[in-house]
Automatic annotation (TrEMBL):
Recorded catalytic activity of this chain's protein: D-mannitol 1-phosphate + NAD(+) = beta-D-fructose 6-phosphate + NADH + H(+)
Signal peptide: none
Enzyme class: oxidoreductase
Keywords: NAD, Oxidoreductase
EC number: 1.1.1.17
Chain ranges of the Mannitol dehydrogenase C-terminal domain: 237-365
Domain of life the protein comes from: Bacteria
Family affiliation: Belongs to the mannitol dehydrogenase family.
SUPFAM superfamilies: 6-phosphogluconate dehydrogenase C-terminal domain-like, NAD(P)-binding Rossmann-fold domains
Gene3D superfamilies: N-(1-d-carboxylethyl)-l-norvaline Dehydrogenase, domain 2, NAD(P)-binding Rossmann-like Domain
Organism: Cryptosporangium minutisporangium
Protein name in UniProt: Mannitol-1-phosphate 5-dehydrogenase
Domain Mannitol dehydrogenase N-terminal: 11-228
Length: 414
């Protein structure tokens, strides 16, 4: 795959060149009517593999939409340069470019903590831009975290020295986003599928579902692509959209990843075909819906759409992939519903099922544990201690602790 014309100017910088970025932000940028003015310089977290594969094909790659009936392919041309995350020189140079206007991130939930390397790299980039006399820009996190813009603003500002923090306050806008497009990791056999489909070899294709959603708020002081013409929505407040997605979709995913994998299921499609998992999902969704600021009609439509998306047998979304980093995911996907229910003196059985399944997963049941933050939770002597690590107030709630104890003891019983 080679470009035939000049690439767009690199006005966007992305950290976390992986599967989701290629299916989502890079796709929206390429689909915008002003795509010819917005190129992306993308960095992997660390490893050079994907950056090298993309560089060898001028940043071009095939996006394959997996419909239930078959595949369709589009070539995406918004990535104009790809680098390994270890290439600090290229990283700092990208921040110094006067035309840089937007920085996007897809680095996983765990990477928003100080010490992960991401806040540190952002601060180094911002310092380089300030030293070079660079102008304002927007930072737009695209990970599944509530209030992700405020989270990045805080961690970056705390890490910066006072002079840089003052410059950030004046020059950097932090967008908040809800992102959605189910994008499983590309596998080796996917490379053959794409060549059979298009006749063109591609070492860096991405396979994704047809559905996509992007809801954003915030300022873009140096401009941005017309993403809204590609289907993105700009709103005053992302929170209701984010809660709908994080609780119903991501919370449902975590339920299937922990409780569904304990029943022997490997993929989301397999788990939702099981009436037991469907019943557990309904229980969780009924409970979470009580606290969502949306009409019953909207919630019913969203639940129906999720079941349809998840039942697509051609999306091989592995429960083991979703089960990673539960210690970072459950606090944003499940605990808000636990707190709301307990404040209303309800016992949230659906949420307790997810927590119990996760605790059992930490002890070897279901999907393997891949979570750098899991050790203290796995070492906890009892469910009460697990709750205490999340939030001492939850551990002090005797009724909640008793319900969780019982659910962990009962295991996967239906
Ligand atoms: N895949 C999806 O369906 C999907 C959908 C919505 C949102 N997301 C968000 O995107 C994130 C990434 O998903 P993906 O499917 O692209 O995963 P991926 O594994 O394909 O890519 C993740 C990228 O993040 C980088 N990364 C991880 N930890 C990092 C760190 N500490 N510092 C710097 N970079 C780091 C990795 O190196 C890689 O480049 C998810 O965690 C989620 O928050 C994914
Ligand atoms: O990507 P993660 O690891 O944050 O979570 C796994 C899934 O719940 C998630 O990727 C969803 O597929 C995605 O959020 C759908 O838009």
């Amino acid at each position: 795959m080679r470009r035939t014309g000049p690439p767009p100017a690199p006005r966007i910088l992305h950290l976390g060149l992986g599967n989701f970025f290629r299916a989502h932000q890079a796709w929206y940028t390429a689909a915008a009517p002003d795509a010819d003015q917005w190129g992306i310089t993308a960095f992997t977290g660390r490893s050079p593999g994907l950056a090298a594969a993309l560089t060898a094909q001028d940043g071009l790659y095939t996006l394959v939409k997996r419909w239930p009936e078959g595949d369709t392919a589009t070539v995406v041309g918004s990535v104009v340069a790809a680098h390994a995350g270890t290439d600090t020189g290229a990283w700092l140079d990208a921040w110094r470019r006067p035309e840089l206007a937007v920085v996007t991130l897809t680095v996983t939930e765990a990477a928003y903590l100080r010490g992960s390397g991401v806040p540190e790299r952002l601060v180094a980039g911002l310092a380089a831009r300030r030293a070079a006399g660079g102008g304002p820009l927007a930072i737009v996190p695209c990970d599944n975290l509530p209030a992700n813009g405020a989270v990045v603003r805080q961690v970056v500002t705390e890490l910066a020295d006072p002079a840089l923090a003052a410059w950030i306050a004046d020059s950097v806008a932090f967008g908040t986003t809800m992102v959605d497009r189910i994008t499983p990791a590309t596998t080796a056999s996917d490379l053959d599928v794409v060549e059979r489909l298009t006749g063109v070899p591609d070492a860096a294709p991405v396979f994704t579902e047809p559905f996509t959603e992007w809801v954003l708020s915030g300022d873009f002081p140096a401009g941005r692509p017309h993403w809204e013409d590609a289907g993105a929505r700009f709103v005053a407040d992302v929170e209701p959209h984010e809660q709908r997605k994080l609780w119903l979709l991501n919370g449902g995913h975590s339920l299937l990843a922990h409780a569904g994998s304990a029943l022997g299921h490997r993929t989301v499609a397999e788990a939702v075909a099981d009436p037991v998992c469907r019943r557990w999902l309904s229980e969780w969704w009924d409970e979470a819906a009580i606290y969502l600021p949306l009409s019953p009609t909207e919630i019913t439509a969203y639940r129906g759409a999720l079941l349809e998306r998840w039942s697509n047998p051609r999306i091989q979304h592995q429960l083991a992939q979703i089960a990673t980093d539960g210690s970072q995911k459950l606090p944003v996907r499940v605990l808000p519903v636990v707190r709301a229910a307990r404040a209303a003196r309800r016992t949230p059985a659906g949420a307790i099922r997810i927590l119990a399944a996760w605790i059992r997963h930490l002890h070897g049941v279901g999907a393997p544990v891949r979570d750098a933050g899991a050790a203290p939770f796995a070492a906890a002597a009892a469910p009460r201690d697990v709750l205490a690590l999340f939030d001492p107030a939850l551990a002090a709630d005797g009724e909640l602790v008793a319900a969780l104890d019982q659910a962990v003891g009962e295991g996967a019983r239906t």
